[in-house]
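User: Predict the complex.
Assistant: Input components as received:
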Amino acid sequence: MTSSAHTRDLILDSAEALVLRDGAASLTLERVAREAGLSKGGVLYHFASKAQIVQGLVERLIRHFEADLGQYLRKTDTRPGRRTRAFVRASLEGSWDRKTGVRSHGLEIFAALMAALATAPESLVPLQQRYARWQREMERDGLEPARATVVRLACDGLWFSELLGFGSLSPRRRATVVQEILRLASQDEAGVSRKAGRA
Amino acid sequence: MTSSAHTRDLILDSAEALVLRDGAASLTLERVAREAGLSKGGVLYHFASKAQIVQGLVERLIRHFEADLGQYLRKTDTRPGRRTRAFVRASLEGSWDRKTGVRSHGLEIFAALMAALATAPESLVPLQQRYARWQREMERDGLEPARATVVRLACDGLWFSELLGFGSLSPRRRATVVQEILRLASQDEAGVSRKAGRA
DNA sequence: ATTACTGTACCGTCCGGACGGTATAGCCGT
DNA sequence: ACGGCTATACCGTCCGGACGGTACAGTAAT
């Protein structure tokens, strides 16, 4: 019990780093073990199979992201669209520092995603369920649903494109893009009614 | 030479179908061969290695998408933002039917992407280069660059989320979302102008 | 004769997973 | 305070199987 939770986290960190550095195909028990400074047997003691490591990755990512989301949500923003804005911030600014510096959720999602798609697609189900929930929440967030959805999609597109190197942006441009996304998530005026509009 | 190009396409189709149906991990030479109704030797006659199949997938996808993009671009839209709108349409409505019905570029990109990430990440380079180019073109398209970029990202986010089942939308909602994206790509100036109604 | 394959056999490598063993630490009755 | 027992946390090895790739002999149509 003493170090169990710690070692599990260490193994997941190693798996994550491995996928990010060497690609999803490099996610093997032996490599994870070496990265974590354990033996293969040691890794299998904590996770009974490779699929369970991937599952662990997905579940941990959900925990981290929801924690971050909650944090952003608590920050005294009461105008309509607050959930959507919290999602934007958690997606794009969100960090969860493990001893050193910053790590975006994008990296975490990406690693889990690649790992899951390459070895155990069914372990994405919990993440899909969360996404469905987030989507529902953002649709009832005071913004026009289509608008909120576009904002959500732009966030997904951003971290995803960044990680794949698809039309990557300069830091300067990225900042203005994030601003624009937040602006679209703040639009109460014009196009969106705030009085009679919604029943 | 005559049937060579045809068989190459058949092999690529099979690889694509395989990835889409059974996941990237199932992309093996033997399975591709069986899917295509060839022998392993026959497949290797056309593609010297598995990596070359993946490369072929990426290259063909680029050809298809650019052809579609060109088509949409030719359609007498001369207002600022035409390239951006063409990109939206090619991404989200774009189809390239091979005998039957419709196939979105999303599917094609996704298959190539998964295959590449799982087995030969370096074969994504050509696609990354194209994306960089499209990004540059859309930034000089008459729209505010940050706006055009958000539109681009929302497109990427949409097909990507759809294929992964992340917060998927009803057909009805999807339609309004696409409309909203196009609306954002039509905005010449003045932040958000107006209008909730449609023609 | 060339092109476009089929079919079979084979090699070296790597992988997931099972298994047996080990070191350590803690509790328990005496 | 001792020996006995158990649980935790690993290590190292082994194995069956799959995969990428090679080689090569044969075939059928052009």
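Residues 1-4, 7, 38-43, 45-46 of chain A lie near DNA strand D (CB under 10 Å from a C1').
Let me know if you want any component modeled separately.
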